[in-house]
Each structure stands twice: as structure tokens, then as C-alpha cells.
From TrEMBL:
Belongs to the SYG1 (TC 2.A.94) family. Residues 551-745 form the EXS domain. Residues 1-291 form the SPX domain. Pfam families: EXS, SPX. The chain crosses the membrane at residues 341-365, 385-406, 427-447, 467-485, 492-509, 552-570, 591-607, 619-641, 662-682. It comes from Camelina sativa (False flax). Residues 224-251 form a coiled coil. It comes from the Eukaryota. Keywords: Cell membrane, Coiled coil, Membrane, Phosphate transport, Transmembrane, Transmembrane helix, Transport. This is Phosphate transporter PHO1 homolog 4. May transport inorganic phosphate (Pi).
């Protein structure tokens, strides 16, 4: 792999604008190379006498010009910045009068600007890391004192080691009883001072309030019940404090590693580009310029390395029982290795799925099943049960496609979603799960393809009719399985986010929460299939393969409305929660969007069940308003497109996908796919399609629209992080010192 590609691949995506612009510098080198070729061709046309005279002049002047460049260090006073002075480097090119010298002057001017940008950014981040290290040191002092208070056991401290050294020194002087008594008294005095210092620390700290709010604490907040934040010396609190500090140290360690990698990558980029310059321009400037780079703060400061060593030492001693292997395995993220077995299994299940689809089509054609009397009954009973798995498989395939393109265009989706490092699924893993579920579902369909009832019993075999239920129970059991198989961390992450979506008003809303809730709004038909599962098997209709009880039951009809509203209602509650917490009216406008969608969905469902002119008109009006509002929100707010005055017409200034037509096509598709509700109010019918088939096709179109929306939504979120250089999550610390005020550390 060439250095340019490796350089880009190892960048921190959110800091990409703070790196050396290696590609731009290479384009300037290409201009230098082209200008030198032109100058060489012109020199060949020069008379031999003039060429000899030029060579002699160059030999004479080379004695006085030993260098091609001079690098100056400029120190400026900056009142606006937090630091009093800033150090910049300016390079003077001494041979600007030669042919192509203008390009070389431009090259060094650009290189200086890029290097100064990198050097100042690195200095700023190191200062931030220094402040975080001081805060973590204070947290560790509090933790040691807290642990000492809870365990009520005196552990060796700094003073104990001092007393040991004093004892050893005194033994060399003499072993008289008087000196022994003096040593014991001195050691006791130091231990008492140690206990006194720990008590003084505990008197100056209190438990930090966190944003993670449980339903009970949310109710207390609403009722204005005062939250007790004083210290309670219990083992439960100690365990919670240790857990939070452990996460804080791991996150801080990752920041330090990224900073170290940032310094190394940029220094390597400067070295590579200077070597290329010397080779192309036939100069000898790389050595002198790299001496300046080595003296700069970017390369000479070892503060980050010292912080790394200190964090490793503290973490291993206090959070892994002095087990270095265990401690380092927690500090350093696990790297997901691509396994050939995953690729093979994905291809195997894909091939099985295609084969089963072909076999299903051949069996239907050979038996002329579409022309039998049981075909209509099958489409009204068994098809709604199996299409649930089709919706899930399609949504997973869209998610896998999104992961592929997020990685291709360097969208840091694992950081945005808050996945634990080393546990995020790649697109191959998601495809494996989706194709595996699809193959299992198709096998169940083939087993249950008998559409005619038994001629003697006038009934269907119970085992055959229970196949869809067995498949659903198996999928739920796999999702809830506590064993560490089939990506347990990802399954539990999904369940945790799903629980927070269901309990939307009582939990702080994060991006994974509302992102999953938005996905659920595109799975209304899948939720209705689950409702049909409960009715079909709960009332025993599966024994006769009919749905009379479900269609005639008023409870089923009422819940048919509710199911269509639940995802939008949860999303509405999330917006209300964010309004209360963040005091941002933008979430209020977003809540209006979901309220309009709820009304439109109810009216369309009512029109489907009760045909009438009044229902038709009201469904038209509210669906049109909700569609216009939702389309505007998708494109302008969620995707950040249609910005005025940007360099990319009707888009935005920064685009990750190089082809603008992709964005225009996505906007058009979003509008068209949002209009699928027209089929409901227009009552379009096709003789060759069953009504349930039409519902399934429209639901698939909505899932595809949501998949397209997901890519551009996360792209916009990533660009917002890039603009703010936000590459790490904020970890709340457990303790707050009184001198720090009321704000959280």
C-alpha cells in the first residue's frame, strides 16, 4: 500500500482536517516536476557556450550557497489565545530565481502552513490531555480514600514506604532501643498523617451527578424530590465508582494513543513529502527541514508518552490487581480480524437462499399452487406470518450495505453509535446473520407449503401450522440468549437501546436511541405481523387456517390502529424529553412532524378499514401535510442538504461521496418513496397481486427508503463531529471537589 493511502486510512476521521494535506502537497510537486521538465527541454536548446558558462557559474556560486532553504523560528505573542506565545516556522527558499522556483516557493509556503497547523493543534490537544490527567489524579486520590474508608483496611501507602526506608537506614546506624522507639513513633505519626489526609480528601468531595437517569430518578425529578449526592461509604457505591473510573481511564488512554499516532503520522508525512521533493527538484533540503521537525513540539515533546506510562501503571495496579496482561487487554482495544470462515459462511447461506427461492418457484409452478382454492387462504393466514422475517432480513441487508459504505467513506459509525471498541459488527457479520435467517425462513416456508387441508379430517396438521411460531420463538431465544455466542455484546446493546426506546420518557435520549426509534417507524407492517401472531395462535385459528376470529375481534381492530402509532409515539416522547433537557425548540418542530404522522397513519388505517369519502379526504389532507413536512425534515435537517450559498448547488459544502448525482438521486428517491401511502387512499388494485402482497411490497419500499436515509443521516452527523474535532466521548467522573464548584468534572 502506498503511503498516501495508508496515511488516509490511519487518520482519526474526526481530525482529518487537522492532518497534513499530503495530497495537495503532492499536486504541487507534480507542478514542480512539470516545470523542471520544461526547463530541461529549454536548456537543451541553449547553445553549448551558454551551457558551459552556466555550469561554471553554478560551480562558483555553490561554494557560497551550501543550502537550498533556511528555516526560521518565529515566536509571536497572541492575546486572544490561552497561551501567551505561539511558535511558528517559516521557510525561505534561496533559489527562487531559478526556473520553476515559483512552484517551489509555493510548496514551502504550503508546507509551513500545514506543519504549523499540525504543531499548534497537537500542542492544544496535549494541553487538554494534561488537564484531564490532573483531574484523573484527583479522582484517584478520592478513590483510594473512598476505598480505604469502605474496606477499613490500611493498605501500603507512600508514607509506609518512607517509614520502611527510614527503618532500614536506622538499622545501619544502630539497633538501640531508643532509636527503635523513635522509628516506631515516626512510622505511626506518618500513618496518622496518611489517614488524616484521606479524611480531608473525603470531606472535600461529593458524588458527581450523571446524566444517566433511570425511570425512578426521572419520577423523583418531576416530583422535585431532592437527590442526595453526599458520600455513602458502601460496597455498591465503591463498585460503581471503580467502574466509572475504569471507563474514564480507558477512554483517556485511547486519546493518548491517538495523539501519539497523530504525531507519528504527520511527522512521517513531512518526511515522505520532503524526500519526494528532493528527488523531483534535485535538491538537498529534506535533512535541514527534518531537523526543524525534530526540534518542534510535535516530535520533541514526550509528555504524551509519559502520560501513557503513568496510566498503564495506575490502571494495572488499581483496576487489574497488578496483572499486567489483564490490564493491557482492557486498555488496548481489540482489533476485529476478518476471518475467512465468515466470508465463506456468508456466501454459503446466500447460495442456499437463492437455491431455496428457485426451488420454491419451481414447486409452485409444478403443483399449480397459485390456481388452487387454498391459495387465497394461505395468503391471508400464512403469508403475513412469514413476511415478518422477510422485513427483518431486508432491513439487516440495508444496514449491512450502510456499514460497507460508511467504512468506505470513513464515517466513524462505531463512535457515533457508541459501540464498545472491538465488538462492532462489520458488514460481513450482518450479512451472515441476515442470509442465515433468510435461509432458515425459506426452509420453513417449504416445509409449510401444503395449502390444502386433509380430505378426511378437514383440518391442517398442527405440527405444520406451528412451524412459523417455532421459527419466531427460535429467533427470540437467540436474541435473548445469555451465552457468549452469536455476537452477545451486539445483541445486548440492541436490547438495551430497544428498552430505552420503549421507556422513552424516563431515559436521557442519545443518538442510538432515536436512530433505532426511527428504524422502527419503517417497520409498522412487521409489528402488525407480530400482532397477527398473537391473534392467530392465541385464538386457535391456526388449527383451521383461518383468520375469522382476528378480523371479527374488536380488540384486534383497535390494536391494529395502535401498532401503527407506537413507533411514532415513542419518537414523539423522545422529542419531548429532549425539549425538556436541552431547551432546544428544534426538537419541538421535530415532535410536530411525528404528531402529524400519527394523525395521518390513523386516518389512512381508518380509511382502509372503513371506506368513505370523509375518511378519504381527511387522509389525503393530513398525509400530504405530513409527507411534505417529513420530506423537508429528512433532506434539510437530517441530511443537511439544500443549503444556501454553498459551493455544491442545492447540497452542502462538505460531501463524502465524490459524485454529486448520488445526493440528487437520493433526494428524488426519498420524495418518491414517501408517496407510497398514495396506494392506500387511491385504492389501487392489481389483478395479479394479492392485497397482502401489495402491502408487503410497499413495506419493503419503506424499508429501502429508511436504509438510504440512514446513510446520509449518519454522514451528516459525522461531518458535524469533524467540524468540532469531536473524536472521543465524554465520560462523567464519579467525584466532584468542592473547589471545582457545582459543575461536573
Amino acid at each position: 500500500m502506498r503511503f498516501g493511502k495508508e496515511f488516509v486510512s490511519q487518520m482519526i476521521p474526526e481530525w482529518q482536517e487537522a492532518y497534513i494535506d499530503y495530497a495537495h502537497l503532492k499536486t504541487i510537486l507534480q507542478d514542480i516536476q512539470a516545470s523542471r521538465k520544461n526547463s530541461d527541454s529549454n536548456s537543451q536548446n541553449t547553445p553549448s557556450f551558454a551551457r558551459n558558462l552556466t555550469r561554471r557559474y553554478n560551480r562558483d556560486t555553490s561554494v557560497f550557497e551550501n543550502h537550498d532553504i533556511v528555516v526560521n523560528t518565529v515566536i509571536r505573542d497572541e492575546e486572544e489565545l490561552e497561551t501567551t506565545t505561539t511558535t511558528t516556522y517559516e521557510t525561505t527558499f534561496l533559489k527562487a530565481g531559478e526556473a520553476g522556483g515559483d512552484f517551489e516557493v509555493t510548496f514551502f509556503r504550503t508546507l509551513d502552513r500545514e506543519f504549523n497547523k499540525v504543531n499548534n493543534f497537537y500542542r492544544l490537544k496535549v494541553e487538554t490531555a494534561r488537564n484531564e490527567a490532573l483531574a484523573l489524579n484527583k479522582q484517584m486520590d478520592a478513590l483510594i480514600a473512598f476505598r480505604h474508608k469502605v474496606m477499613d483496611v490500611k493498605k501500603p501507602s507512600v508514607f509506609d514506604s518512607v517509614s520502611v526506608d527510614i527503618n532500614g537506614l536506622a538499622s545501619e546506624v544502630g539497633s538501640s532501643s531508643k532509636s527503635r522507639e523513635h522509628r516506631v513513633a515516626l512510622a505511626d505519626l506518618m500513618r496518622n498523617d496518611d489517614d488524616t489526609s484521606k479524611e480531608s480528601i473525603l470531606e472535600r468531595i461529593r458524588m458527581n451527578k450523571t446524566r444517566e437517569i433511570t425511570p425512578l430518578s426521572a419520577i423523583k425529578t418531576i416530583l422535585k424530590v431532592r437527590k442526595q449526592d453526599e458520600l455513602k461509604f458502601t460496597r455498591e457505591n465503591l463498585k460503581e465508582v471503580e467502574k466509572r473510573l475504569q471507563i474514564a481511564f480507558i477512554e483517556f488512554y485511547q486519546k493518548l494513543r491517538h495523539l501519539k499516532n497523530y504525531s507519528f503520522l504527520n511527522a512521517s508525512a513531512v518526511s515522505k513529502i520532503m524526500k519526494k521533493y528532493d528527488k523531483i527538484a534535485k535538491r538537498n533540503a529534506a535533512k535541514l527541514y527534518m531537523e526543524m521537525v525534530d526540534r518542534s513540539y510535535l516530535s520533541s515533546s514526550d509528555e504524551v508518552h509519559q502520560h501513557l506510562l503513568k496510566v498503564e501503571s495506575i490502571f494495572i495496579e488499581h483496576f487489574s490487581n497488578s496483572n499486567r496482561r489483564q490490564g493491557m487487554s482492557l486498555l488496548r482495544p481489540k482489533i476485529n480480524k476478518e476471518r475467512h470462515l465468515i466470508t465463506f459462511s456468508t456466501g454459503f447461506f446466500f447460495g442456499c437462499g437463492v437455491s431455496l427461492i428457485v426451488a420454491l418457484g419451481l414447486i409452485i409452478h409444478a403443483r399449480n399452487i397459485m390456481g388452487t382454492l387454498g391459495q387465497r387462504t394461505y395468503m391471508e393466514t400464512m403469508f403475513p406470518l412469514y413476511r415478518f422475517f422477510g422485513f427483518v432480513v431486508l432491513h439487516m441487508i440495508m444496514y449491512a450495505a450502510n456499514i460497507y459504505f460508511w467504512r468506505r467513506y470513513r464515517v466513524n459509525y462505531s463512535f457515533i453509535f457508541g459501540f464498545k471498541q472491538g465488538t462492532e459488527l462489520g458488514y460481513r457479520h450482518v450479512l451472515l446473520l441476515s442470509f442465515g435467517l433468510g435461509t432458515l425462513s425459506l426452509c420453513a416456508v417449504l416445509v409449510n407449503l401444503d395449502m390444502e387441508m386433509d380430505a378426511e379430517t378437514k383440518d391442517y396438521r398442527t405440527v405444520t401450522e406451528l412451524v412459523p411460531l417455532f421459527l419466531l420463538v427460535l429467533v427470540i431465544a437467540i436474541v435473548l440468549c445469555p451465552l457468549n455466542i452469536l455476537y452477545r455484546s451486539s445483541r445486548y446493546f440492541f436490547l438495551a437501546v430497544l428498552f430505552r426506546c420503549i421507556a422513552a420518557p424516563f431515559y436521557t435520549v442519545n443518538l442510538p436511541d432515536f436512530f433505532l426509534a426511527d428504524q422502527l417507524t419503517s417497520q409498522v407492517q412487521a409489528l402488525r405481523s407480530l400482532e397477527f401472531y398473537m391473534c392467530y395462535y392465541g385464538f386457535g385459528d391456526f388449527r383451521h387456517r383461518r383468520r375469522n376470529t382476528c378480523t371479527s375481534n374488536i380488540g384486534f381492530t383497535t390494536f391494529y390502529f395502535i401498532v401503527a402509532v407506537i413507533p411514532y409515539w415513542l419518537r414523539l416522547l423522545q422529542c419531548i424529553r429532549r425539549i425538556i433537557e436541552e431547551k432546544d425548540l428544534c426538537h419541538g418542530y421535530n415532535a410536530i412532524k411525528y404528531l402529524l404522522t400519527i394523525i395521518a397513519a390513523c386516518l389512512r388505517t381508518a380509511y382502509t378499514l372503513n371506506r368513505g369519502t370523509t375518511w378519504n379526504i381527511t387522509a389525503w389532507v393530513f398525509s400530504g401535510v405530513a409527507t411534505f413536512y417529513g420530506t423537508y425534515w429528512d433532506i434539510v435537517v437530517d441530511w443537511g442538504l439544500l443549503q444556501r450559498g454553498c459551493k455544491n448547488s442545492f447540497l452542502r459544502d462538505k460531501l463524502l461521496v465524490p459524485h454529486k448525482t448520488v445526493y440528487y438521486a437520493a433526494m428524488v428517491l426519498n420524495v418518491l418513496l414517501r408517496l407510497v401511502w398514495l396506494q392506500t387512499v387511491l385504492n389501487l388494485k392489481f389483478s395479479f397481486l394479492h392485497r397482502e402482497t401489495m402491502v408487503a411490497l410497499l413495506a419493503c419500499l419503506e424499508i429501502i427508503r429508511r436504509g438510504i436515509w440512514s446513510f446520509f443521516r449518519l454522514e451528516n452527523e459525522h461531518l458535524n463531529n469533524v467540524g468540532r474535532y469531536r473524536a472521543f466521548k465524554t465520560v462523567p467522573l464519579p467525584f466532584n471537589y468542592e473547589e471545582d464548584g457545582d459543575h461536573n468534572n
